[in-house]
What we know:
The protein is of the alpha/beta class and 461 residues long. Among the domains are: 84 residues, Winged helix-like DNA-binding domain superfamily/Winged helix DNA-binding domain (Arc Repressor Mutant, subunit A); 186 residues, Rossmann fold (3-Layer(aba) Sandwich). It is built from 23 helices and 14 strands. Strand 9, helix 21 and strand 10 form a beta-alpha-beta unit. The protein is globular, with a radius of gyration of 24 Å. The chain starts with 7 loop residues before the first strand and ends with a strand.
Amino acid sequence: MFPSREPILFVVSAERPASVSRLAEAVGQRVSSPIFKVGLQQGFTTGEMGFGVSLHGGNPKPLMSALGQQQTLKRFHLMSALPPKADIRYKNSRRLLPQVSGTHVPLSVNCQRDTSSMSDIAHGKAETQSPQNHLIQMATAHWISRFLYVAARMNLADQVAERPKTAEELARSTGATTSSLYRFMRTLASLGLFTEDSEHQFSLTTLGEALRTGTPGSVRASVLTLAGGIFTQGLDHLHYSIQTGRTSFEKAFGVPMFDWLASHPAEASMFSETMVGLHGAEPPAVAAAYDFSEFGTIVDAGGATGNLLSTILGRYPKPHGVLFDLPHVVADASKLISARGLSNRIKIESGSFFENVPSGGDVYLLSHIIHDWSEAQCLTILGNCRRAMNPDSRLLIIEMVLPIGDTPHLGKVLDIIMLAVPGGQERTEPEYRVLLDKAGFHLKRVVPTESAVSVVEAALV
Length: 461
């Protein structure tokens, strides 16, 4: 249990040292105060954690109690991902933050713009967010998504990558109206993507760097896909999906999502890149959690560009792989496989898992496949896998496995996206067991990983 007054922890990246002074002034502490050295006392460097602030009369013990003496915040530059003055309130909660740098932080985050002043917060006058404000914040979340989409589409991060620029300069290179663009840049700066100096020039922050094109760790393609038409228009008819069980996407676009992607190669390529970025932490986590060392051939059915398969083979020297997917999907696979030095160990085959699957594999991977399709379609895919497998082969379904009850989980949100966009669903372990029984498999075990997904292992009945 925490004390009655909530501790507030500010995490400040060492790349933004000026923030330390501002926070110190806001809470009435000196930078040299021991409160600002709590993180350092726990063995963190300034480049890794930053500084913590407790509101308990200058006593760091409640803060360290809230942290649980854990090293879970190491390499977690939270301030670079939050608006200036955003506060992180540690609550008596089991809810988990999204995964960052391979580490879960077992604390909840309140990241709205507080209407109270920083001096009010410093003196403990800030109130807990009301249910009404919480719901309004949830209702306006799509505003930020659209801001990100437009910023990515206008290549604003690339525009200021080399040097700071004014809105007037940016307007000339983007064809935008100066006054409108300035207001937009000011808003994006308030969200932490850019920073504005005294001469009204904008430069990139660590957060904004991730919107650049073609740089390591870039999420520009992911933003353009997830905040773009596939999902915005694809969710326009969500009410229809809830009422009928049919996809909102098909009602909006006239065809199922994967048929639409097949006829839009540019969007399909960006979609594949998005999936690699979105699930980037999963392949190494799966390779670490499940032992592939003794298998001879691994068939990745629906493996897209081969990210998962090549990660597994990069860790285990014995197996060879077969990457199987539609022709337009595997078109980009050879580049990734070659770049990882695995061209001699991975064979690329094209086809549809609704028709057949390469035979003779020791392990069959279905990563983020089963959640895309209706139960009838899943049974077709599983049936084709069953016919291709040897008696002692294993089937590995790599998906989020939903917790029972009302435990918060990203997969429960994704489940509704699956319903409305491709027409699939996320499942609990009992629901996977039922599906596999119908397909002639026996669910042997569920292997958790350090990422959001688990490995559902099944064998032939």
